[in-house]
Design a protein that fits this description.
It is an enzyme of class 2 (transferase). This protein is of the alpha/beta class. It contains 6 helices and 9 strands, in the order βαβαβαβαβαββαββ.
């Protein structure tokens, strides 16, 4: 079976990256992780990737005079690994329109909220302040508008009475580690594809029963 080549962009500890690496190590998974690239030389994710035998690279954003210059070098570095898909996994940089256009339809991101609600930062605090009963995470295609690309997959978790940001974030992160490998598999296998600006998913899967809380 031919597997899609995937590069992962990281900035921090890389827990979602690790979930993708673990999934790709399973027989039959339709993607292989060929590189991990960080904009921070001290990102903990680099050591995790190296222990897994994944090639790594660093493109330190502090060494470049502009976002365009950084993105050009990031693009050159990625191209050296010949990935077919790029996954953002805690990559804390806003990418330029030119970079996004070069990887259009081939770049996935995971966001800690049920988009289109709570775009941007501080999603868990805002969810608690709003009083929603369900929160969660979203894997979407990256477009120039932040957190607005077509949605590939989502996972919902309950918001419990007594939750604070830390407890809610931990529950969402557990869901992220399940969702991202599933979404990447859908995209890499071709079961999920873009049609008229929306993602459609092929397959015989029966929808689960509604998740109701409380």
């Amino acid at each position: 079976m031919s597997r899609a080549r995937v590069a992962i962009l990281v900035s921090g500890r890389g827990s979602n990256m690790a979930a993708l690496i673990d999934a790709a190590a399973e027989p039959g998974y339709p993607a292989e992780i060929v590189a991990v690239v960080s904009n921070r030389p001290n990102a903990g994710a680099l050591a995790v990737a190296e222990r897994a035998g994944i090639p790594t690279a660093v493109v330190d954003h502090k060494l470049f005079p502009s976002r365009d210059a950084f993105d050009a070098e990031l693009d050159r570095t990625l191209a050296g690994f010949t990935p077919e898909i790029v996954c953002l996994a805690g990559f804390m940089r806003l990418l330029t329109g030119g970079f996004i256009a070069r990887w259009e339809g081939r770049m996935l991101n995971i966001h800690p909220a049920l988009l289109p609600s709570f775009k941007g930062l501080d999603t868990h605090r805002r969810a608690l302040e709003t009083g929603v009963r369900l929160h969660g995470c979203t894997v979407h295609l990256v477009t120039e508008e932040m957190d607005a690309g077509p949605i590939v997959a989502q996972a919902a978790v309950p918001v419990l009475d007594g939750d604070d940001e830390a407890s809610l974030a931990a529950r969402v992160l557990t869901a992220e580690h399940l969702l991202y490998p599933r979404a990447l598999a859908l995209w890499a296998s071709g079961r999920a594809r873009l049609v008229d600006g929306k993602v459609v998913v092929d397959g015989p899967d029966e929808p689960p029963s509604p998740f109701i809380w409380p």
